[in-house]
Specification:
With 333 residues, the protein is of the alpha/beta class. The protein is 36% helix and 17% strand.
């Protein structure tokens, strides 16, 4: 099976490659070559920019059975994909996002693939438009398309988010015994899936005819609160977390751009049902528990000297000081 990954150097891609190689696939990645690569030597690397006009003709004479696009973020890129790969590959897999559902909550809390897609963020809106372009290509017979929607995916090589931001100072503060911030009462629902578990769904969907023309959530079954999340990350560090719960609006107002993750995503429930994926792709099962995965991720960051330091972060410390001065008591988790 000849597989092309557009991107291939990111977090989920690493997990995908691992499982594709376990299937004895012939794997090629296409990207700009800007990131250091830790991929096995057997993985071929094509260097190019997907936004160049040459993208659509670059793959002429380079046959692939499966194309997986991990870095398609806008309609123009989706349209270029259709022109580049229509009738040239048997199966096209698009990495979308659960942000395409928006922020509403269904009556039974968990969102499955039938839930109306009403995104509120620019990221989610663009991904939904891309999905629609690929669905039309599938329906018109140009290529067999599968859409996969990950939620929060984490693992070595990437920072571990907190409730406020993507590359937080929280974990350094927890290590130092300092209070950290979380929005609301910490009871918002959340899911976190290790990149190796998420990668299974992409890798084992490839050429699986049951997945043609379908969309899937790609999350582990465990749903927890942000209180659970902070407690488990602290446990991965061998610590307890002392958490100050403050209104999301109060936190965002201190640094709207910095806390964009909270503003657009994490202040809302993020709980999804991936039973359809498990039904159609038997190999998709999540084996890495969160404490174990968080420990791996944080140790990798420590070894790379990439754990974001909290010293000198005047904005965050000022917020903590204001909360304490207002009489907010840290909750030990």
């Amino acid at each position: 099976m000849r597989v092309l990954i557009i991107g291939g150097s990111g977090l989920i891609s690493t997990g995908i490659v691992t499982h594709l190689l376990a299937r004895d696939a012939d794997v090629t990645v296409f990207n700009r070559g800007k990131r250091p690569s830790s991929l096995p030597a057997s993985v071929k690397h094509l260097v190019g920019d997907r936004n160049d006009k040459s993208f659509e003709t670059f793959f002429a004479g380079k046959p692939f059975d499966v194309v997986i696009d991990m870095i398609c973020f806008n309609p123009e890129q989706a349209q270029a994909d259709v022109r580049a790969f229509a009738t040239r590959c048997e199966h096209f897999i698009f990495c979308s996002t659960v942000c395409s559902y928006g922020t509403k909550i269904p009556p039974r809390v968990l969102i499955d693939e039938s839930f109306p897609q009403e995104p509120t963020s620019g990221y989610g809106k663009n991904k939904l438009t891309c999905e629609q372009i690929f669905r039309r290509a599938d329906e018109s017979g140009k290529m067999n398309v599968t859409i996969i929607r990950p939620s929060h995916t984490y693992g070595p090589g990437s920072p571990l988010i907190d409730n406020l931001e993507s590359d937080p100072v929280s974990w350094d503060r927890v290590s130092r015994g300092l209070p950290v911030l979380c929005a609301g009462d910490g009871l918002g629902l959340w899911q976190s899936t290790h990149r190796d578990d998420c990668g299974k769904l992409f890798a084992y969907s490839a050429l699986n005819t049951r997945t043609f023309g379908k969309s899937y959530n790609a999350t582990r079954d465990d749903v927890f609160t942000w209180r659970d999340y902070y407690r488990d990350v602290a446990a991965a560090l061998g610590k307890r977390a002392n958490v100050l719960f403050m209104p999301a609006e109060w936190i965002v107002a201190h640094a709207p751009q910095r806390f964009g993750l909270l503003r657009e995503i994490t202040q809302f429930h993020g709980a999804y049902d991936s039973s359809a994926a498990k039904r159609d792709v038997a190999e998709f099962h999540c084996d890495i528990n969160f404490i174990e995965g968080a420990a791996m991720t944080l140790e990798d960051a420590r070894q790379r000297d990439a754990l974001k330091p909290s010293k000198g972060d005047a904005v965050y410390q000022t917020m903590v000081d204001k909360a304490l001065k207002a009489g907010v008591e840290p909750v030990e988790l």
